[in-house]
Protein backbone atom coordinates (compact mmCIF):
# COMPACT_ATOMS: atom_id res chain seq x y z
CA UNK A 1 0.00 0.00 0.00
CA UNK A 2 1.26 3.43 -0.89
CA UNK A 3 1.09 6.03 1.90
CA UNK A 4 1.03 9.76 1.22
CA UNK A 5 2.50 11.91 4.01
CA UNK A 6 1.40 15.51 4.54
CA UNK A 7 4.16 16.03 7.12
CA UNK A 8 7.89 15.56 7.02
CA UNK A 9 8.23 11.98 8.34
CA UNK A 10 11.68 12.59 9.83
CA UNK A 11 13.03 10.88 12.93
CA UNK A 12 12.82 12.79 16.21
CA UNK A 13 15.40 15.24 17.48
CA UNK A 14 15.76 16.29 21.15
CA UNK A 15 15.40 19.81 22.44
CA UNK A 16 16.54 20.75 25.98
CA UNK A 17 14.19 23.06 27.81
CA UNK A 18 15.33 24.74 31.05
CA UNK A 19 13.44 26.80 33.59
CA UNK A 20 15.11 27.80 36.85
CA UNK A 21 16.63 24.67 38.31
CA UNK A 22 14.49 22.47 36.05
CA UNK A 23 15.90 20.78 32.95
CA UNK A 24 13.54 18.89 30.68
CA UNK A 25 13.95 17.33 27.25
CA UNK A 26 11.21 17.25 24.63
CA UNK A 27 11.22 15.75 21.14
CA UNK A 28 10.42 17.94 18.17
CA UNK A 29 10.27 15.86 14.99
CA UNK A 30 10.20 18.93 12.74
CA UNK A 31 9.13 22.51 13.54
CA UNK A 32 7.15 22.63 10.30
CA UNK A 33 5.09 19.66 11.46
CA UNK A 34 3.07 21.69 13.96
CA UNK A 35 -0.50 20.38 13.65
CA UNK A 36 -3.89 21.07 15.15
CA UNK A 37 -6.61 18.54 16.05
CA UNK A 38 -8.20 16.94 12.90
CA UNK A 39 -5.28 17.96 10.67
CA UNK A 40 -4.40 15.25 8.11
CA UNK A 41 -1.09 13.54 8.72
CA UNK A 42 -1.17 10.77 6.12
CA UNK A 43 -3.57 8.94 3.77
CA UNK A 44 -3.57 6.02 1.39
CA UNK A 45 -3.12 6.73 -2.32
CA UNK A 46 -6.67 5.51 -2.94
CA UNK A 47 -7.93 8.92 -1.81
CA UNK A 48 -8.04 12.03 -3.92
CA UNK A 49 -6.89 15.23 -2.22
CA UNK A 50 -5.79 17.79 -4.74
CA UNK A 51 -5.81 20.54 -2.05
CA UNK A 52 -3.27 18.70 0.13
CA UNK A 53 0.48 18.97 -0.38
CA UNK A 54 2.06 15.55 -0.43
CA UNK A 55 5.55 15.72 1.10
CA UNK A 56 6.47 12.05 0.77
CA UNK A 57 5.15 8.82 -0.69
CA UNK A 58 6.15 5.46 0.75
CA UNK A 59 5.13 1.88 -0.01
CA UNK A 60 4.27 0.28 3.32
CA UNK A 61 2.24 -2.78 4.19
CA UNK A 62 1.07 -1.15 7.40
CA UNK A 63 1.44 2.21 9.15
CA UNK A 64 1.97 2.06 12.92
CA UNK A 65 0.51 4.98 14.82
CA UNK A 66 -0.01 6.14 18.41
CA UNK A 67 -3.74 5.87 19.00
CA UNK A 68 -3.57 8.34 21.91
CA UNK A 69 -2.45 11.19 19.68
CA UNK A 70 -3.43 9.99 16.18
CA UNK A 71 -6.90 9.03 14.87
CA UNK A 72 -7.28 6.61 11.96
CA UNK A 73 -10.32 7.09 9.72
CA UNK A 74 -10.62 3.51 8.50
CA UNK A 75 -13.45 4.34 6.10
CA UNK A 76 -11.38 6.92 4.22
CA UNK A 77 -7.94 5.51 5.15
CA UNK A 78 -6.82 8.85 6.63
CA UNK A 79 -4.62 9.39 9.68
CA UNK A 80 -5.52 12.60 11.57
CA UNK A 81 -4.12 14.44 14.62
CA UNK A 82 -6.01 14.09 17.88
CA UNK A 83 -4.09 16.81 19.71
CA UNK A 84 -2.18 20.02 19.11
CA UNK A 85 1.55 19.37 18.73
CA UNK A 86 4.41 18.24 16.49
CA UNK A 87 3.76 15.25 14.24
CA UNK A 88 6.41 12.80 13.12
CA UNK A 89 7.64 9.23 13.10
CA UNK A 90 8.86 8.40 16.60
CA UNK A 91 10.43 4.95 16.70
CA UNK A 92 8.78 4.28 13.31
CA UNK A 93 5.36 5.12 14.75
CA UNK A 94 3.24 8.05 13.60
CA UNK A 95 2.87 10.25 16.68
CA UNK A 96 1.97 13.78 17.71
CA UNK A 97 4.26 15.21 20.41
CA UNK A 98 2.61 17.69 22.75
CA UNK A 99 4.67 20.89 23.31
CA UNK A 100 3.51 20.95 26.94
CA UNK A 101 6.29 21.19 29.52
CA UNK A 102 5.58 20.44 33.19
CA UNK A 103 7.93 21.49 35.99
CA UNK A 104 9.61 18.81 38.05
CA UNK A 105 7.50 19.62 41.11
CA UNK A 106 4.37 19.78 38.90
CA UNK A 107 3.50 23.32 40.04
CA UNK A 108 3.75 24.95 36.60
CA UNK A 109 3.10 24.04 32.96
CA UNK A 110 3.96 25.79 29.69
CA UNK A 111 3.61 25.47 25.96
CA UNK A 112 7.04 25.48 24.38
CA UNK A 113 6.56 28.17 21.73
CA UNK A 114 10.05 28.86 20.39
CA UNK A 115 9.47 26.64 17.33
CA UNK A 116 5.92 27.84 16.58
CA UNK A 117 5.75 29.35 13.06
CA UNK A 118 4.37 32.88 13.09
CA UNK A 119 1.30 31.79 11.13
CA UNK A 120 0.53 28.81 13.39
CA UNK A 121 0.32 30.29 16.88
CA UNK A 122 -2.54 28.63 18.74
CA UNK A 123 -5.58 30.70 19.60
CA UNK A 124 -6.74 31.29 23.15
CA UNK A 125 -9.49 28.75 22.54
CA UNK A 126 -6.93 26.17 21.39
CA UNK A 127 -4.80 26.82 24.47
CA UNK A 128 -7.89 26.33 26.64
CA UNK A 129 -8.47 23.03 24.85
CA UNK A 130 -4.88 21.98 25.61
CA UNK A 131 -5.42 22.90 29.28
CA UNK A 132 -8.56 20.78 29.47
CA UNK A 133 -7.04 17.91 27.49
CA UNK A 134 -4.17 17.71 30.01
CA UNK A 135 -6.63 17.97 32.92
CA UNK A 136 -4.87 21.02 34.31
CA UNK A 137 -6.62 23.35 36.73
CA UNK A 138 -8.01 26.23 34.71
CA UNK A 139 -6.67 29.10 36.83
CA UNK A 140 -4.91 31.24 34.21
CA UNK A 141 -7.14 34.22 33.35
CA UNK A 142 -7.99 35.33 29.84
CA UNK A 143 -5.89 38.47 30.21
CA UNK A 144 -2.90 36.48 31.47
CA UNK A 145 -3.12 34.11 28.51
CA UNK A 146 -3.33 36.99 26.05
CA UNK A 147 -0.24 38.60 27.63
CA UNK A 148 1.65 35.29 27.54
CA UNK A 149 0.81 34.74 23.86
CA UNK A 150 1.78 38.32 22.99
CA UNK A 151 5.21 37.90 24.61
CA UNK A 152 5.73 34.59 22.84
CA UNK A 153 4.75 36.04 19.45
CA UNK A 154 7.21 38.90 19.93
CA UNK A 155 9.84 36.25 20.77
CA UNK A 156 10.48 37.79 24.18
CA UNK A 157 10.02 34.35 25.70
CA UNK A 158 10.15 30.77 24.50
CA UNK A 159 7.16 29.53 26.50
CA UNK A 160 3.54 30.28 27.29
CA UNK A 161 2.41 29.50 30.82
CA UNK A 162 -0.86 27.62 30.71
CA UNK A 163 -1.19 26.27 34.26
CA UNK A 164 0.15 26.92 37.73
CA UNK A 165 -0.09 25.34 41.13
CA UNK A 166 1.56 26.35 44.37
CA UNK A 167 4.74 24.88 45.86
CA UNK A 168 4.49 23.54 49.37
CA UNK A 169 5.94 25.82 52.05
CA UNK A 170 7.82 23.64 54.49
CA UNK A 171 7.89 24.71 58.12
CA UNK A 172 10.44 24.64 60.90
CA UNK A 173 10.82 25.69 64.52
CA UNK A 174 13.01 28.62 65.51
CA UNK A 175 16.72 27.81 65.16
CA UNK A 176 20.20 29.35 65.09
CA UNK A 177 22.13 29.51 61.83
CA UNK A 178 25.76 29.54 62.92
CA UNK A 179 28.18 32.02 61.35
CA UNK A 180 31.24 29.93 62.21
CA UNK A 181 31.33 26.41 60.85
CA UNK A 182 33.48 24.10 62.92
CA UNK A 183 36.36 22.89 60.78
CA UNK A 184 38.32 19.92 62.03
CA UNK A 185 41.92 19.77 60.88
CA UNK A 186 43.76 16.52 60.36
CA UNK A 187 46.85 18.06 61.95
CA UNK A 188 49.39 20.84 61.61
CA UNK A 189 52.68 20.84 59.71
CA UNK A 190 55.64 21.58 61.98
CA UNK A 191 58.73 23.59 61.02
CA UNK A 192 60.65 20.41 60.18
CA UNK A 193 57.95 19.41 57.68
CA UNK A 194 56.44 16.64 59.78
CA UNK A 195 52.74 16.51 60.59
CA UNK A 196 51.64 16.91 64.19
CA UNK A 197 48.39 14.96 64.29
CA UNK A 198 47.62 16.24 67.80
CA UNK A 199 46.95 19.78 66.51
CA UNK A 200 43.36 19.27 65.34
CA UNK A 201 41.57 22.34 66.78
CA UNK A 202 38.43 20.36 67.52
CA UNK A 203 36.76 22.98 69.70
CA UNK A 204 35.62 26.51 68.97
CA UNK A 205 36.57 29.02 71.68
CA UNK A 206 34.30 32.05 71.82
CA UNK A 207 34.56 35.35 73.65
CA UNK A 208 31.86 37.27 75.48
CA UNK A 209 29.78 39.40 73.05
CA UNK A 210 31.13 37.47 70.04
CA UNK A 211 28.55 36.81 67.33
CA UNK A 212 27.58 33.15 67.22
CA UNK A 213 24.90 33.14 64.56
CA UNK A 214 21.57 34.45 63.30
CA UNK A 215 18.26 33.50 64.90
CA UNK A 216 15.93 32.24 62.17
CA UNK A 217 12.29 32.68 63.14
CA UNK A 218 9.86 29.78 63.12
CA UNK A 219 7.93 29.14 59.91
CA UNK A 220 4.51 27.49 59.75
CA UNK A 221 4.08 24.84 57.09
CA UNK A 222 1.61 25.30 54.23
CA UNK A 223 0.56 22.58 51.79
CA UNK A 224 0.81 23.25 48.08
CA UNK A 225 -0.93 21.81 45.05
CA UNK A 226 0.02 20.69 41.54
CA UNK A 227 -1.29 21.91 38.21
CA UNK A 228 -3.64 18.91 38.40
CA UNK A 229 -5.03 20.05 41.75
CA UNK A 230 -3.35 17.33 43.79
CA UNK A 231 -2.12 18.28 47.25
CA UNK A 232 1.63 18.61 47.86
CA UNK A 233 2.24 17.77 51.50
CA UNK A 234 4.42 20.28 53.33
CA UNK A 235 6.92 19.02 55.89
CA UNK A 236 7.59 20.45 59.34
CA UNK A 237 11.11 19.54 60.43
CA UNK A 238 14.06 20.85 62.43
CA UNK A 239 16.59 22.79 60.36
CA UNK A 240 19.10 23.69 63.04
CA UNK A 241 19.78 23.85 66.77
CA UNK A 242 17.75 25.88 69.23
CA UNK A 243 19.33 28.73 71.17
CA UNK A 244 20.57 27.44 74.53
CA UNK A 245 22.21 28.76 77.67
CA UNK A 246 24.70 31.63 77.74
CA UNK A 247 23.40 32.98 74.42
CA UNK A 248 21.29 36.11 73.91
CA UNK A 249 20.05 38.40 71.16
CA UNK A 250 21.89 41.60 70.30
CA UNK A 251 19.95 44.64 71.52
CA UNK A 252 21.02 46.72 68.52
CA UNK A 253 20.92 44.30 65.58
CA UNK A 254 17.82 42.17 65.14
CA UNK A 255 18.18 38.38 65.37
CA UNK A 256 21.97 38.48 65.93
CA UNK A 257 22.93 35.83 68.51
CA UNK A 258 25.79 36.71 70.88
CA UNK A 259 27.76 34.79 73.50
CA UNK A 260 27.12 35.96 77.05
CA UNK A 261 30.36 34.48 78.45
CA UNK A 262 33.79 33.29 77.40
CA UNK A 263 33.65 29.56 76.74
CA UNK A 264 33.37 26.75 74.25
CA UNK A 265 30.63 26.60 71.65
CA UNK A 266 28.74 23.33 72.00
CA UNK A 267 26.46 22.22 69.18
CA UNK A 268 24.18 19.19 69.04
CA UNK A 269 21.36 18.31 66.67
CA UNK A 270 18.85 19.99 68.96
CA UNK A 271 20.62 22.85 70.75
CA UNK A 272 23.62 25.19 70.63
CA UNK A 273 25.04 26.87 73.71
CA UNK A 274 28.21 28.23 75.29
CA UNK A 275 29.67 26.33 78.22
CA UNK A 276 32.35 27.69 80.53
CA UNK A 277 33.61 24.11 80.90
CA UNK A 278 34.87 21.89 78.10
CA UNK A 279 33.97 18.26 78.83
CA UNK A 280 35.98 15.41 77.26
CA UNK A 281 34.20 12.16 78.10
CA UNK A 282 37.09 9.84 77.21
CA UNK A 283 40.86 9.58 77.13
CA UNK A 284 42.59 12.25 75.10
CA UNK A 285 43.62 10.77 71.74
CA UNK A 286 44.34 11.72 68.12
CA UNK A 287 40.62 11.95 67.39
CA UNK A 288 40.44 14.86 69.85
CA UNK A 289 43.96 16.28 69.70
CA UNK A 290 45.52 18.97 71.86
CA UNK A 291 43.25 21.23 73.88
CA UNK A 292 43.62 24.98 74.30
CA UNK A 293 40.56 26.47 75.95
CA UNK A 294 40.01 29.77 77.73
CA UNK A 295 37.63 28.28 80.31
CA UNK A 296 37.51 25.17 82.49
CA UNK A 297 38.43 21.73 81.13
CA UNK A 298 37.32 18.37 82.51
CA UNK A 299 38.68 15.12 81.03
CA UNK A 300 36.98 11.88 82.11
CA UNK A 301 39.94 9.73 81.06
CA UNK A 302 43.72 10.06 80.88
CA UNK A 303 46.13 12.31 78.98
CA UNK A 304 48.75 10.26 77.07
CA UNK A 305 52.36 11.34 76.47
CA UNK A 306 52.99 14.30 74.17
CA UNK A 307 49.56 15.92 74.36
CA UNK A 308 48.96 19.54 75.37
CA UNK A 309 46.10 20.66 77.61
CA UNK A 310 45.90 24.39 78.35
CA UNK A 311 42.94 25.71 80.35
CA UNK A 312 42.34 29.37 81.09
CA UNK A 313 40.32 28.25 84.12
CA UNK A 314 40.56 25.05 86.12
CA UNK A 315 41.73 21.70 84.71
CA UNK A 316 40.39 18.42 86.07
CA UNK A 317 41.65 15.04 84.80
CA UNK A 318 39.99 11.94 86.23
CA UNK A 319 42.67 9.58 84.94
CA UNK A 320 46.46 9.75 84.62
CA UNK A 321 48.56 12.51 83.03
CA UNK A 322 51.75 11.05 81.59
CA UNK A 323 54.59 13.17 80.16
CA UNK A 324 52.07 15.72 78.87
CA UNK A 325 52.06 19.52 78.84
CA UNK A 326 49.50 20.74 81.38
CA UNK A 327 48.63 24.35 82.18
CA UNK A 328 45.73 25.79 84.17
CA UNK A 329 44.89 29.38 85.02
CA UNK A 330 43.03 28.03 88.05
CA UNK A 331 43.26 24.76 89.96
CA UNK A 332 44.84 21.64 88.43
CA UNK A 333 43.40 18.35 89.70
CA UNK A 334 44.66 15.01 88.36
CA UNK A 335 42.95 12.14 90.18
CA UNK A 336 45.16 9.38 88.78
CA UNK A 337 48.57 10.96 89.28
CA UNK A 338 51.15 12.86 87.24
CA UNK A 339 54.18 11.36 85.50
CA UNK A 340 56.28 14.16 84.07
CA UNK A 341 59.55 14.93 82.33
CA UNK A 342 62.19 17.40 83.52
CA UNK A 343 61.88 19.46 80.32
CA UNK A 344 58.08 19.73 80.56
CA UNK A 345 56.82 22.45 82.93
CA UNK A 346 53.40 21.84 84.48
CA UNK A 347 51.80 25.09 85.69
CA UNK A 348 48.81 26.02 87.80
CA UNK A 349 47.53 29.47 88.72
CA UNK A 350 45.75 27.90 91.70
CA UNK A 351 46.37 24.72 93.68
CA UNK A 352 47.38 21.26 92.45
CA UNK A 353 45.81 18.04 93.73
CA UNK A 354 46.90 14.57 92.63
CA UNK A 355 47.62 11.02 93.77
CA UNK A 356 51.36 11.14 93.14
CA UNK A 357 54.10 13.03 91.29
CA UNK A 358 56.84 11.25 89.33
CA UNK A 359 59.75 13.05 87.64
CA UNK A 360 57.59 16.16 87.41
CA UNK A 361 58.55 19.81 86.93
CA UNK A 362 55.78 21.67 88.76
CA UNK A 363 54.86 25.31 89.41
CA UNK A 364 51.77 26.27 91.42
CA UNK A 365 50.64 29.65 92.72
CA UNK A 366 48.89 28.04 95.71
CA UNK A 367 49.04 24.73 97.61
CA UNK A 368 50.13 21.36 96.23
CA UNK A 369 48.29 18.43 97.81
CA UNK A 370 49.63 14.93 97.03
CA UNK A 371 47.86 11.95 98.57
CA UNK A 372 50.54 9.26 98.12
CA UNK A 373 54.10 10.23 97.18
CA UNK A 374 56.44 12.63 95.39
CA UNK A 375 59.38 11.10 93.54
CA UNK A 376 62.31 12.92 91.87
CA UNK A 377 60.30 16.07 91.17
CA UNK A 378 61.22 19.75 91.11
CA UNK A 379 58.45 21.87 92.59
CA UNK A 380 57.86 25.59 93.17
CA UNK A 381 54.82 26.40 95.27
CA UNK A 382 53.30 29.69 96.45
CA UNK A 383 51.55 27.95 99.35
CA UNK A 384 52.06 24.59 101.08
CA UNK A 385 53.27 21.20 99.84
CA UNK A 386 51.38 18.51 101.73
CA UNK A 387 52.11 14.81 101.24
CA UNK A 388 50.99 12.91 104.33
CA UNK A 389 48.25 10.47 103.31
CA UNK A 390 48.90 6.85 102.31
CA UNK A 391 52.72 6.46 102.05
CA UNK A 392 53.27 10.22 102.40
CA UNK A 393 56.84 9.92 101.11
CA UNK A 394 59.03 12.47 99.32
CA UNK A 395 62.06 10.96 97.59
CA UNK A 396 64.56 13.00 95.58
CA UNK A 397 64.15 16.29 93.76
CA UNK A 398 64.07 19.89 94.95
CA UNK A 399 60.85 21.09 96.57
CA UNK A 400 60.32 24.81 97.25
CA UNK A 401 57.30 26.12 99.15
CA UNK A 402 56.46 29.52 100.56
CA UNK A 403 54.67 28.44 103.74
CA UNK A 404 55.18 24.77 104.58
CA UNK A 405 56.34 21.34 103.42
CA UNK A 406 54.78 18.45 105.31
CA UNK A 407 55.20 14.73 104.74
CA UNK A 408 55.41 11.45 106.65
CA UNK A 409 58.77 10.29 105.24
CA UNK A 410 61.53 12.30 103.57
CA UNK A 411 64.24 10.62 101.49
CA UNK A 412 65.03 6.91 101.32
CA UNK A 413 67.26 4.37 103.00
CA UNK A 414 69.64 4.55 100.02
CA UNK A 415 70.30 8.23 100.74
CA UNK A 416 68.75 9.75 97.60
CA UNK A 417 69.49 13.52 97.68
CA UNK A 418 66.27 15.30 98.59
CA UNK A 419 66.03 19.08 99.10
CA UNK A 420 63.12 20.55 101.06
CA UNK A 421 63.09 24.36 101.04
CA UNK A 422 60.59 26.74 102.62
CA UNK A 423 60.33 30.51 102.61
CA UNK A 424 60.40 30.48 98.81
CA UNK A 425 57.90 32.98 97.40
CA UNK A 426 57.50 32.43 93.61
CA UNK A 427 55.88 35.83 93.12
CA UNK A 428 58.72 37.53 94.98
CA UNK A 429 61.28 35.53 92.98
CA UNK A 430 59.57 36.47 89.71
CA UNK A 431 59.75 40.14 90.63
CA UNK A 432 63.45 39.81 91.43
CA UNK A 433 64.06 37.94 88.17
CA UNK A 434 62.17 40.64 86.28
CA UNK A 435 64.49 43.31 87.73
CA UNK A 436 67.54 41.17 86.84
CA UNK A 437 66.27 40.82 83.29
CA UNK A 438 65.66 44.57 82.93
CA UNK A 439 69.11 45.33 84.35
CA UNK A 440 70.83 42.86 82.01
CA UNK A 441 68.96 44.13 78.94
CA UNK A 442 69.69 47.78 79.78
CA UNK A 443 73.38 47.05 80.37
CA UNK A 444 73.54 45.27 77.00
CA UNK A 445 72.03 48.32 75.26
CA UNK A 446 74.58 50.51 77.04
CA UNK A 447 77.44 48.22 75.97
CA UNK A 448 76.38 48.42 72.32
CA UNK A 449 76.08 52.23 72.50
CA UNK A 450 79.60 52.51 73.95
CA UNK A 451 80.94 50.09 71.35
CA UNK A 452 79.41 52.18 68.54
CA UNK A 453 80.83 55.35 70.04
CA UNK A 454 84.38 53.96 70.31
CA UNK A 455 84.27 52.68 66.73
CA UNK A 456 83.23 56.12 65.55
CA UNK A 457 85.56 58.30 67.63
CA UNK A 458 88.20 55.98 69.10
CA UNK A 459 88.77 54.39 72.50
CA UNK A 460 90.11 57.60 74.10
CA UNK A 461 86.91 59.48 73.31
CA UNK A 462 85.20 58.53 76.58
CA UNK A 463 88.17 59.80 78.62
CA UNK A 464 87.34 63.38 77.65
CA UNK A 465 84.28 63.48 75.37
CA UNK A 466 83.87 67.27 75.66
CA UNK A 467 87.38 67.84 74.33
CA UNK A 468 86.93 65.44 71.42
CA UNK A 469 83.53 66.87 70.44
CA UNK A 470 85.08 70.31 70.03
CA UNK A 471 87.21 68.86 67.21
CA UNK A 472 84.21 67.52 65.28
CA UNK A 473 81.52 69.53 63.50
CA UNK A 474 78.20 68.91 61.78
CA UNK A 475 76.55 65.50 61.69
CA UNK A 476 79.40 63.64 63.43
CA UNK A 477 79.26 65.98 66.41
CA UNK A 478 75.46 65.74 66.57
CA UNK A 479 75.62 61.92 66.49
CA UNK A 480 78.21 61.86 69.26
CA UNK A 481 76.09 64.09 71.48
CA UNK A 482 72.99 61.92 70.92
CA UNK A 483 74.85 58.72 71.81
CA UNK A 484 76.30 60.28 74.96
CA UNK A 485 72.80 61.30 76.04
CA UNK A 486 71.58 57.76 75.37
CA UNK A 487 74.39 56.26 77.49
CA UNK A 488 73.57 58.67 80.32
CA UNK A 489 69.90 57.70 80.18
CA UNK A 490 70.77 53.98 80.22
CA UNK A 491 73.08 54.51 83.20
CA UNK A 492 70.20 56.14 85.06
CA UNK A 493 67.85 53.26 84.18
CA UNK A 494 70.34 50.72 85.53
CA UNK A 495 70.62 52.70 88.78
CA UNK A 496 66.83 52.88 89.10
CA UNK A 497 66.36 49.15 88.48
CA UNK A 498 69.11 48.26 90.95
CA UNK A 499 67.61 50.58 93.57
CA UNK A 500 64.15 49.07 93.11
CA UNK A 501 65.59 45.57 93.32
CA UNK A 502 67.45 46.43 96.52
CA UNK A 503 64.27 47.91 98.01
CA UNK A 504 62.38 44.73 97.15
CA UNK A 505 65.09 42.56 98.69
CA UNK A 506 65.08 44.60 101.89
CA UNK A 507 61.31 44.39 102.14
CA UNK A 508 61.36 40.67 101.40
CA UNK A 509 58.35 38.38 100.89
CA UNK A 510 55.31 38.61 103.17
CA UNK A 511 54.39 35.51 105.18
CA UNK A 512 51.16 34.85 107.04
CA UNK A 513 52.99 32.41 109.32
CA UNK A 514 56.51 31.22 109.94
CA UNK A 515 57.60 28.88 107.14
CA UNK A 516 58.13 25.35 108.40
CA UNK A 517 59.09 21.83 107.37
CA UNK A 518 57.27 19.00 109.14
CA UNK A 519 58.38 15.39 108.74
CA UNK A 520 55.93 13.26 110.71
CA UNK A 521 57.85 9.99 110.83
CA UNK A 522 61.30 9.60 109.26
CA UNK A 523 63.96 11.78 107.66
CA UNK A 524 66.62 9.68 105.96
CA UNK A 525 70.23 10.72 105.32
CA UNK A 526 70.54 12.74 102.13
CA UNK A 527 67.59 14.98 103.04
CA UNK A 528 68.58 18.66 103.05
CA UNK A 529 66.25 21.05 104.86
CA UNK A 530 66.46 24.76 104.04
CA UNK A 531 64.73 27.99 104.96
CA UNK A 532 65.17 31.09 102.80
CA UNK A 533 63.84 33.25 105.61
CA UNK A 534 66.54 32.21 108.06
CA UNK A 535 69.21 29.66 107.13
CA UNK A 536 69.54 28.88 110.85
CA UNK A 537 65.79 28.58 111.22
CA UNK A 538 64.48 26.50 114.08
CA UNK A 539 61.18 25.97 112.28
CA UNK A 540 62.22 22.56 110.96
CA UNK A 541 60.41 19.85 112.88
CA UNK A 542 60.80 16.09 112.87
CA UNK A 543 58.17 14.48 115.06
CA UNK A 544 59.75 11.02 115.22
CA UNK A 545 63.02 9.26 114.53
CA UNK A 546 65.75 10.86 112.48
CA UNK A 547 67.72 8.16 110.74
CA UNK A 548 71.37 9.20 110.76
Please outline the helices and strands:
Blueprint: E1 2-5, E2 14-19, E3 22-27, E4 34-35, E5 40-44, E6 56-59, E7 70-73, E8 78-81, E9 85-90, E10 93-97, E11 100-102, E12 108-112, H1 124-133, H2 142-153, E13 159-164, E14 175-178, E15 188-189, E16 195-196, E17 205-206, E18 211-216, E19 224-225, E20 231-232, E21 242-243, E22 247-249, E23 256-259, E24 263-267, E25 271-275, E26 277-280, E27 291-293, E28 296-299, E29 308-311, E30 315-317, E31 321-322, E32 325-328, E33 332-334, E34 338-339, E35 345-348, E36 352-358, E37 361-364, E38 368-381, E39 384-387, E40 393-401, E41 404-410, E42 418-422, H3 426-457, H4 465-471, H5 474-507, E43 516-523, E44 527-531, E45 540-542
Overall description:
The chain is of the alpha/beta class and 548 residues long. The chain has 4 domains: 2-164, no CATH class; 175-275, no CATH class; 277-427 and 514-542, no CATH class; 431-507. 17% of the residues lie in helices and 36% in strands. It contains 5 helices and 45 strands. The strands form 9 sheets. It has a 20-stranded parallel β-sheet that branches. A hairpin with a 2-residue loop joins β9 and β10. α3 packs antiparallel against α5 (474-507). It is elongated. The N and C termini lie far apart (132 Å). The model has no long low-confidence stretch (mean pLDDT 86).
Amino acid sequence: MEINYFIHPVEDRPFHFSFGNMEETILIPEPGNLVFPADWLAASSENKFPEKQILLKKNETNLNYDDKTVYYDSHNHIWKAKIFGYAGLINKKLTVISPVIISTDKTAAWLYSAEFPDDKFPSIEMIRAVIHANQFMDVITEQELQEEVAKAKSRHTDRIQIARGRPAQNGWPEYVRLVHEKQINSGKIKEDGRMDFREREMFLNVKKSQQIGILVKAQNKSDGYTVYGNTIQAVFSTRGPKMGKNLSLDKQYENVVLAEIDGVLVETNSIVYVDETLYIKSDLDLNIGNIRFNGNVEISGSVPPGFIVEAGGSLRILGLAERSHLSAGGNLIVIGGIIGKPEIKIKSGGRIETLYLRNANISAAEDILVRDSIYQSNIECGGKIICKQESGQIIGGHLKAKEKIECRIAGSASGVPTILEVGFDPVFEQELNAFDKEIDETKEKRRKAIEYLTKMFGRKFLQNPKHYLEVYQGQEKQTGVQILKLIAALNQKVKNFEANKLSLQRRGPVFSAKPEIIIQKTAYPGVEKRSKVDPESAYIKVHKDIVE
